[in-house]
Write a structure and sequence with these properties.
D-isomer_DH_CS1 (chains A, B), ThiF/MoeB/HesA (chains A, B), 10 helices, Rossmann fold, metal ion binding (chains A, B), alpha/beta, Ubiquitin-like modifier-activating enzyme 5 (chains A, B), homodimer, 5-stranded parallel beta sheet
Chain lengths: 308, 308
């Protein structure tokens, strides 16, 4: 590197550090101002320009609606933290984050977190990073375990009333948890409330149980696998909220073989949960009342690439 | 002030600011110390514990080898920046980053970057964020366009000699660029050097060209699509470097339909590039010399979930 460009690098680094320091000291420099209305204007300073282009391209009819939606993310570990980040960058209206875990160094090399966040609650660390990325998004964080009796009631309340407009329900609940109890709690709450939710999960396959049971061994997965699952989940969220493309009922990903099976999962008509059975009935009635859909096939036309 | 002393002044200021920032972020506890050897020890403070668990689980035989590899990422936009982040969190030995673009606010709501980084070169912004995430990784950044004659020669040199041990070639080149010229430059360089590389790309399909050609319209894609592509790319990189699972020849992803086609892409035996034809010959000879592979099918056994 020659001395002129080294000098330039140094000057940029000084500016970057000054801004970072100002932010830490509460000066608020470096953070962009909040934006009231998503503009389709094509300028380098419009943070929504590239997203609004999806509208002009005819992929999404009303991209700007994204900022009217509220999504609850339950569990902000490997899948949930990246899910929340993507929704934040997309300009979601409000995020409710639930988790009771703390950031440990052990998380840093796989996930979203940064070394200096070790010791913070995960929801707090996520909120801090994301608020800085997009100040337009509203955050509500709950640092508790949703499966205890008191917390479960509070969780139900926030799903019911924690929408962008206080008192309205959230639009979607995302299950990004890593244990059966929490998964069942989300399931129970959403069935009772008639709340739409999406499940995500990462499981370790092809493992010798004897190996797994040896002392000190825990099942884990590659950060890439988690990010792929988060990417698939948020893609489905955007399709569902903004009404484009096909939302798969179930989309799998087998990391070892690059296999992505899709399937429809049928509910159990004899389910123990009476609210589940009630939702099944309501779904059947809604389906029966709908006019039949006409499927129009389109040719795919490849016109441009975008990697930047 | 002459340029040498101005430089010294700037370097002092950088150090001063870095120290002040570290103090603000928690008494200098911010950045973790470098780690010489990846330990399989299961503690919350071991950043590689969860990754090394992949080894004990029998998925990856020698996970710790990851830190011996060098990967060059060409283009650190939507796909490249996230690719570099994942490799950093996984503990790659060295990353070479090539890009000539600057961070604009327009990038922030889609990609990896943060608002306060607007104005920095993309490679510099990526290096700064990633160095903080994992200080064990070595970075070498080049803020230039690889397609100009001078830069192309320098790019070839760094691919040939920029490995973890200076003078050795890199282990893998990743093409994360968004234009045909850069893609061809990577292709030409790697064919000439006999260097393994992987391509990635995001294209806009299903779009009416008339819409696209209207003033102010540019093709773009959802951040979720880019992250999925990056996830697929890095998963393939890990499989290739650490020798596990199946590396697909070509893996596609159609966002609208959740369709992931895999296929083998055959090279053109009449390719204009003589180095491409040479590589084809060498590949054929290598294949012919290899013993036939015996494929052993295994039952998938699901034993544990991991989302956290």
């Amino acid at each position: 590197m020659d001395s002129a460009s080294l000098m330039e690098e140094l000057q940029l680094r000084v500016r970057e550090l000054e801004e970072a320091l100002a932010r830490e000291q509460g000066g608020g420099q470096g953070q962009r101002a909040r934006i009231k209305l998503m503009s389709p204007e094509v300028t380098d300073s419009n943070p929504y320009s590239r997203l609004m282009a999806l509208k002009r391209m005819g992929i999404v009819k009303h991209y700007e609606k994204i900022c009217t939606f509220t999504v609850a993310v339950v569990g902000v570990g490997g899948v949930g933290s990246v899910t929340a980040e993507m929704l934040t960058r997309c300009g979601i209206g409000k995020l409710l984050l639930f988790d009771y875990d703390k950031v440990e160094l052990v998380n840093v090399n796989r996930l979203f977190f940064q070394p200096h966040q070790a010791g913070l609650s995960k929801v707090q660390a996520v909120e801090h990073t994301l608020r800085n990325i997009n100040p337009d998004v509203q955050f509500e964080v709950h640092n508790y375990n949703i499966t205890t009796v008191d917390n479960f009631q509070h969780f139900m309340d926030r799903i019911s009333y924690g929408g962008l407009e206080e008192g309205k329900p959230v639009d979607l609940v995302l299950s990004c948890v890593d244990n059966f109890e929490a998964r069942m709690a989300i399931n129970t709450a959403c069935n009772e409330l008639g709340q739409t939710w999406m499940e995500s999960g990462v499981i370790a396959a092809n493992i010798d149980e004897k190996t797994l049971k040896r002392k000190g061994v825990c099942a884990t997965s590659l950060p890439t696998t988690m990010r792929l699952v988060a990417g698939i989940l948020v893609q489905s969220v955007l399709k569902f909220l903004l009404n484009f493309g096909t939302v798969s009922y179930h989309l799998g990903y087998s990391a070892m073989q690059d296999f992505f099976p899709t399937m429809a999962m049928k509910p159990n008509p004899q389910c123990n949960d009476k609210n589940c059975r009630k939702q099944q009935e309501e779904y059947k009635e809604k389906k029966a009342a709908q006019p039949k859909q006409v499927v129009v096939e389109q040719e795919e036309e490849i016109v441009h690439e975008d990697n930047g």
